[in-house]
């Protein structure tokens, strides 16, 4: 199939570009793949986020996930979820790096440890660790 998708790029428009870049690159450890600058102070950094997927969920599923992980509906239209090796440690690093905790690492019915944040760049973020 010639139209097969080869890469997913999530583009985040961050008013505090330096703060968001520092958080995702330096705090969460997402290595820089490419960086470009252009006229008028235009800047972009492309960071490696590992394997990408798109999770399509209906309203009932989104509400159920929010209830399990946070106890109430908090996610907007998009939520970024990053798999990490140690959710508790990376959650502490995220908080120290400028993310606002919404819910601490929580054991889910699908056997993962998930934590929620409002991260720099106005990104609603889940950090999750697969346990099983």
UniProtKB/TrEMBL annotation:
Limits of the VOC domain: 6-130
Domain of life: Bacteria
PROSITE patterns per the UniProt record, alphabetical: VOC
Protein name: VOC family protein
